[in-house]
Specification:
By secondary structure, this protein is mostly beta strands. The chain is about 5% helix and about 50% strand. The strands form four sheets. It has a six-stranded mixed sheet with strand order 4-3-6-11-8-9.
Length: about 140
């Protein structure tokens, strides 16, 4: 613990509330309509405030979910963004397992990874997973 001598207030050495977030983007599908995550491997660092932008470039809704990721992070919030803007429409708080993103839309998942691991369980719906829409999450 560090002591600030000017105000005599104690702060934790790794105060996560003061972090600037690191932004990552994963795309669901693409302009050609291929069922895939891009990139298919997502890599995060423990203790780092992360904003994962989940953008659906496809013409139908897709799910994004990884039980390994969900079990290894502290979720701060999920932000639903408005069409073609960065204006939040809603914020959801609490544990997250999976999100559904509609065509052309983006959802932000704010989290801090708290446990390391490699998870080969990044999936969408069963039919999309069988068509190749799957990926890996790595947390260092």
């Amino acid at each position: 613990m560090l002591l600030n001598s000017a105000s005599h207030v104690a702060y934790a050495a790794g105060d996560l509330t003061k972090q600037e977030p690191v932004h990552f983007t994963v795309e669901l599908s693409n302009q050609a309509g291929e069922k895939k995550f891009s990139p298919s491997t997502l890599q995060f660092e423990t203790g780092t405030l992360t904003v994962l932008n989940i953008h659906n470039k496809g013409e139908k809704s897709y799910y994004f979910g990884s039980n390994g990721l969900a079990d290894s992070v502290y979720t701060r919030k999920v932000v639903v963004l408005g069409s073609a803007s960065e204006t939040p429409l809603a914020e959801i708080y609490g544990p997250v397992r999976r999100v559904e993103v509609y065509p052309g839309q983006t959802v932000q998942w704010w989290f801090v990874p708290i446990r390391t691991g490699n998870f080969n369980d990044l999936v969408s719906r069963q039919s999309e997973t069988e068509a190749g829409m799957k990926g890996t999450v790595k947390i260092n």
